[in-house]
Each structure stands twice: as structure tokens, then as C-alpha cells.
Amino acid sequence: MSESSARSQMSQQRHGSTPGSASDTRANAVPAFPDLPEATIARLPEYLRALHNLGESGADTISSEGLAAAAGVNSAKLRKDLSHLGSYGTRGVGYDVALLIEQIEYVLGLDQRRAVCLVGVGNLGHALAGYDGFASRGFKIVALFDADPAKVGELIHGLAVRHIDELSQVAVEESIAIGVIATPARAAQAVADELVAAGVTSILNFAPCVLSVPANVDVRKVDLAIELQILSFHEHRKATLTALPGGRSATGAENQEAVGS
Ligand SMILES: NC(=O)c1ccc[n+]([C@@H]2O[C@H](COP(=O)([O-])OP(=O)(O)OC[C@H]3O[C@@H](n4cnc5c(N)ncnc54)[C@H](O)[C@@H]3O)[C@@H](O)[C@H]2O)c1
């Protein structure tokens, strides 16, 4: 698809003349890109961040190699990912930065601001509640909850902590789409159940445990300890390879693959 027809398709989708537009009801809405691979979805935010940086530095177009380097992935993988969006760039020119930002934001649903609540306002919750990066990327924390009566009423960046018992009422009032769990692991499943009962269908879980949720609920887990364990594996592997006769070490190509996979 050419850049101009991609632009026209996006315009049609936004103005409601194709399935998946804002005028569709939830029941008959068809996702714009139903077959997008999960690995591609996971890389789109990386491309978006790189594109915003390029746009801010004044670039109007970018080659696939340039964008791949800025996003830290390999360029063949990037071209394949973007082809799923119908974006192929223009030979000799590259990708239109502004258009590609618009396309990726559309696919990720970032053209709507999504209300987020945070449950568990301890050490981690305080840091997350104060993180400016959510708002600048289209997410607004609209409510903070905790079970500790001593924390209820505390003001964090202008938002008062509410008791967890208010969750179901506030979730409806604020149209909360995403719940962030930052409670101890022992409380996380009960909190997830309360979020689900309140109609929240996306959960970001920081607690180190596996959550059981209905099929229509998406859960993403963030665990820095797991990331450190993966890095520990690579350290172990490098040390083992270096100790082998001939002292082979990990190559740049292997490292690139690890980042872009
Ligand atoms: N994912 C990561 O990389 C990462 C990093 C640090 C901590 N953590 C995890 O994040 C969680 C929070 O860590 P922390 O250091 O902030 O702990 P913390 O003890 O300082 O804070 C936890 C908060 O949750 C509240 N809470 C407990 N039960 C609750 C419930 N049922 N409903 C609502 N609130 C409840 C507590 O009152 C407290 O304010 C832990 O599970 C920890 O293991 C994850």
C-alpha cells in the first residue's frame, strides 16, 4: 500500500466509514488489525518512542535502517512489522515520520486517552503515581486505592488515595480501562478479582505472582527481578563461552537479536 492510500484508509477508519470506527458498537466493532503478531505489538511502542524522538529532532522522513537503529531492532524485522500496518515507506525516501506516528498510535489505540487506576500505594505505588511519563504517553491515572486506612486521604500529586472498597463505584464513575496492581503478592489475586468485578478488562501486574482472570481480561506482568535473572543468564553464558578453548564470546549479532526478539 502506498503512503497516500494508507493515509486515506486511516482517514476512512477515523471517520466511521469502515468497520472498527468509533461509531461502531462494541458488539460489531472489528479490530483494525486482527492478525497482528504479539511480538509485533510489543515492538510498536519502541518504534513510536524512536519516531517521537526523530520528529522532535526535526526529521520528516526516516529510512528503515535509521528507524531500526533508533529503536534498537533489526531492520528486516522492522520492515516486516510495519508491513502488517500497511506501511512500506517510499523507495529512496523512507517512512514519513508524522504519518507513521499516526498509524502506530491508531493501531495501539493511543488516539484515545485511557483512564488508569493504581491499587497499592506503597513504595512502588508512590513512584508510579508520580511518574510523568504516563500522561505524556496518553494515560491518565484517575484514581489511587489502598486497603490501609492510614493511607486513605493522602494526597499524591493532587490525587487523594481512596479506600479499596470504593473501587467498583469509582471504576464506573471514571470509566477506568486499566488497573495497575502494586500490592504485595498475597493480595494481588483478590485485587484482580475486584478490578474484574468492577468491569476493568486490562491489568498491569507488578506483584510477583500469576493472576487468574477471565478470558476477556488482558494481563501484562512487569517483573524487574525476572529481567535481572535473564541478564544473569547472559552473563553466565558469556563467562562460559569465554572459558571454552578458543575463548569464543557473544557477538554483536547475537546481542542485536536478543534486543529485537
Ligand atoms: N515488578 C517489579 O519490578 C517490582 C519492583 C518492586 C516491587 N514489586 C512488587 O510490587 C508490590 C509492591 O511493592 P512495595 O515495595 O510498594 O510494597 P509496599 O508494602 O510498600 O506497598 C504495598 C501497598 O499495598 C497496599 N495493600 C495491601 N493489600 C491491599 C489490598 N488488598 N488492596 C489495596 N491495597 C493493598 C498496602 O497497604 C501498601 O500500601 C509487591 O508485590 C512487590 O513485590 C515489583
UniProtKB/TrEMBL annotation:
InterPro entries: CoA-bd (IPR003781), NAD(P)-bd_dom_sf (IPR036291), Rex_actinobacterial-type (IPR058236), Rex_DNA-bd_C_dom (IPR009718), Tscrpt_rep_Rex (IPR022876), WH-like_DNA-bd_sf (IPR036388), WH_DNA-bd_sf (IPR036390)
GO cellular component: cytoplasm
One GO MF term attached to the UniProt entry: DNA-binding transcription factor activity
Residues binding NAD(+), per UniProt: 120-125
Gene3D superfamilies xrefs: NAD(P)-binding Rossmann-like Domain, Winged helix-like DNA-binding domain superfamily/Winged helix DNA-binding domain
Residue ranges for the DNA-binding region feature of this UniProt entry: 46-85
Subcellular localization(s) per the UniProt record: Cytoplasm
Biological process according to GO: negative regulation of DNA-templated transcription; response to redox state
Assembly description: Homodimer.
Known role: Modulates transcription in response to changes in cellular NADH/NAD(+) redox state.
NCBIfam families: PRK05472.1-3, PRK05472.2-1, PRK05472.2-2, PRK05472.2-3, PRK05472.2-4, PRK05472.2-5
Protein name: Redox-sensing transcriptional repressor Rex
Gene: rex
